[in-house]
Amino acid sequence: MSTYKLYTFNSRSRAEIARLMFIAADQKFEDIRYECKEWVSHKNGTPFKLMPMLEVDGVKLPRSVSIGSFLAKRLQLDGKDNLEHATVEDIRNTLTDLMKQFLSFRQEKDLKKRLNLKKNFYINEIPRYLQNVEILAKQYTNNGPFLVGKNLTWADLFFYEVTEILFKSDGTILDNYLFLQQNHAEVEKQPRIGEYLKNRSKS
């Protein structure tokens, strides 16, 4: 049986989707979290000196998207067949593009530019990407609450965590997207996920 060690900073960060995947699949893993000052003495032991990192049976896998893709397949959260796998990836890619837009304004050093980028992101970019996700989901779902097919996939978990991040600045972003609201609520209804969410840190 494989052993899994997830290395992250002591926050939800980019590794949170991996945590949700482990929990949804009821897969044991070691959740190793470093404070920033501890990281200095550990980063040379990681590929590219980056976190998050997943260690599987001694093999170190960096980058959150690579970790997610690996776990989705290993934990059977990537769809029931090749077509569902492709549609899961389609939604995941759309959400990844959305988060790139989010990071672009947060990393802007010029205050005026950052405020303008933020305004454009919430007024124009979020609605555009959410509309695209809803269009894809309505095409790929099987008349149920999940984004793809009849079962929970990492597309649902990815979408859930992305919206949780965006809710911190605007809790109304899903108000015009009934299906996406239902999907968000369905993730929270998953027994193991729901129990984890009750106890996890808000940071």
UniProtKB/TrEMBL annotation:
Any one GO MF annotation of this record: glutathione transferase activity
Residue span, GST C-terminal domain: 81-203
GO BP term, pick one: glutathione metabolic process
Domain GST N-terminal: 2-79
PROSITE patterns: GST_CTER, GST_NTER
Record's protein name: Uncharacterized protein
Organism: Adineta steineri
